[in-house]
Write a structure and sequence with these properties.
2 domains; three-stranded antiparallel β-sheet; alpha+beta; 12 strands; Jelly Rolls; seven-stranded antiparallel β-sheet
Length: 211
Amino acid sequence: MTLRLRFAICILISLILSSCGPKAGSPATPSVDTAGTAVAAALTAIPPQPTYTPYPTTTPYPTLNLAGLFCEYEFCIGHPARFPFFDLEVVNDFTANRSSYDQGMLIGFDGSLYIFLSWSRLVGDYDPSTMLTASLQTDLPQETRLTEDIGGRAVTYILLQSTAAPTLPYGLAAAWRCGDRQFGWKIYTPADGQALDYLWEAVNRFRCSDG
């Protein structure tokens, strides 16, 4: 628990206790509006805490080196060492849906790299455009789309015109299939050519339970 979070919780407890005590010249019954305002103010001071998905204690791939390898949801994918992924929760109808085997999203970022990974259950024929579109969101792709064999897997990718930040001007989005799921992947890097190198590293080490 961070110092800022502890401080915000102390404020929350103090404000709730003070709102419940009797005041001079007023009834002993606490004001619901005052207590609610105090709670809202304290919660606003608490910084959002990302949900981190740790490495699982067991893995269907015991022979693989897990250093720089994310393994969860019955797949593994390579990534730079000391670069953790965070599990994004999708809110639909006020319900938070965490990632699962059928669908999910992960994100990893620091000052020198940004990676977004998503997947969904395949319905009908596989079309890489589906996951490329999901990965792109509002980002702008270039016109040329390429498909290459990476580690025995057909991977379709496209370079991006847009940038994630002034320090991350080079982007790439990719898509591939594994068993009954389709995967989308996006990256932004500081140097030209790094995005494609990271794609090869990630997919060469990619495995899923269906092949």
